[in-house]
Amino acid sequence: MSSRTRPKRGYSVGVERRNQILDAAMAEFAASGYRGASLAQVAERVGLTQPGLLHHFRSKEELLVGVLERRDELDAIALGLETDMVSMGRGFSGLRALVQLVERNASRRGIVQLFTVLIGESVTDGHPAQEWAHKRYAWIRGLIVNSVREGMDDGEIREDADPVAVATGLVAMMDGLQLQWLHDPESVDMAGLFRRYVDELTADLRTKVAGRRSGR
Fold this sequence. Notes:
Blueprint: H1 5-36, H2 39-45, H3 50-56, H4 60-79, H5 92-105, H6 109-121, H7 130-153, H8 163-183, H9 190-205, H10 208-214
Helix pairs in contact: 1-2, 1-4, 1-6, 2-3, 5-7, 5-9, 6-8, 7-8, 8-9
């Protein structure tokens, strides 16, 4: 093995260990919340001492930041986006992307639970996830607003549609269904109910011209 390849291997091992810690932290935060979890508990999940964990993440807050970034990356991947993109797709294609995200979330209970716990905690004063939650909601609403506006520009969505109201309603439906699904997954068909909501919203927003083109 050459001297050039050794640093790459060390880097790869470091990244793998870091990801293992993030996965453990995601599970611990989902189970106990940020304030209820401890670095010692996270370290135990990956067979490290607390000082060993602090070699990778200097504080619990820094670990939380890493977890939130990882979760946002997973959502962006599910939407087929980069985290700095400003649109999910023009018009109704953007709304369909949200349906795909919810369908994906139905098989990611741990991720959904983590999000729900941290969002709930973040409304309290001084919580380190507060800024993330604010930016995350602004980002997802902004994506939907842009999709709706583009659909209006294309003549697919009614001119009198309110993009901000549409975005706020869709996010509220997603979050509300997630919470109910976590409590009672056997009774709440999260993906099916959200798909039906988007179908009804699409029918309401569709222009008469676009409806004739689509055969509806």
